[in-house]
């Protein structure tokens, strides 16, 4: 049986740290432009209690999303010990392309995947490079596509990247701007003849009838700002309710298809969007099996890294594999789950055995 295994992972964590206290001078406004009754100290404390975020990382001005993806890819290639010329595909998941510092225009031509191939100096024309726009679940969806390519016989090695510079598309008058961060994660997926390891199953869904614009581009909360400039916006309450209702079901579908008992699941790597939301999702997932949530099942990195969209899951996976998350590790034979939810609204989950 042909299967797909992750042979290398890599992460690029930007060096610029922005702590919560650094938002103290922001002028946060309601959607209608009116100020909040509470001062920023209370707003920031409440934000931390809900999201768990204490600080986040921003890319230096000279680095774009494609640069972050390239730097993470270099590490993944080195970790897998492969020749980049042997890659069959490069799949780059992002949402906004390269948004240069202090600009408002997205640049996606050529594709970010092509830019990474260029930076890696890959000459092989049969290495196909393309971008994937699937919201925050984009990197996991890239892994699902890589698995399909390998199982169909059209690929043996695939580089999957998730990277974003969300700090450049936020409205500084919007409280939600504190959620977002920059970062990149990547992995190498290779063909394997071992049927007892690798990707065991997956599930993916798109909800668009009523949910398509839960995340969207909109004007600044500061009505005096340029109305032609758009920023990332979200209906937070709707997303929270949607995620709690639907993500656990998709996770269950993936696990049930794998044939693995839930008691054998060792770790769940879920998109680092909101600590309270992630905890509630995991609780509802286990409730579907009439079980309590096992201790230490859910690694987290949101406290120090914030929400870097497509980069959160590959970043967290790499950190745990490299022993950089306290009291979290993956052993040979462990079954884990990767899950995410985001713009679309899209949901996906993968069951993987090491």
Gross geometry: globular
Mean pLDDT: 94
Using the CA coordinates, give the radius of gyration.
20 Å
**Structural class of the helix and strand makeup?**
alpha/beta
Low-confidence stretches: none
Overall number of strands: 13
Question: What's the SSE pattern?
Answer: EEHEHEHEHEEEEEHEHHHEE
Bin the strand percentage: 15-25%
Report the span from N to C terminus.
16 Å
Summed up, the helix count is 8
Give the % helix.
Answer: 25-40%
Largest sheet: 5 strands, mixed
Strand order of the largest sheet: 1-7-6-4-5
Description:
- With 354 residues, this protein is α/β, with parallel strands linked by helices.
- 29% of the residues lie in helices and 25% in strands.
- It has helices spanning 40-51, 65-80, 112-119, 138-152, 236-258, 275-287, 302-305, 312-321; strands spanning 3-12, 16-19, 55-58, 89-93, 128-132, 157-165, 182-192, 198-206, 215-218, 231-234, 265-270, 335-342, 346-353.
- The strands form four sheets. A five-stranded mixed beta sheet has the order 1-7-6-4-5, with helices on both faces. The chain has a four-stranded mixed beta sheet with strand order 8-13-12-11, with helices on both faces.
- Strand 4, helix 3 and strand 5 (128-132) form a beta-alpha-beta unit.
- The radius of gyration is 20 Å and the shape is globular.
- 47% of the residues are buried.
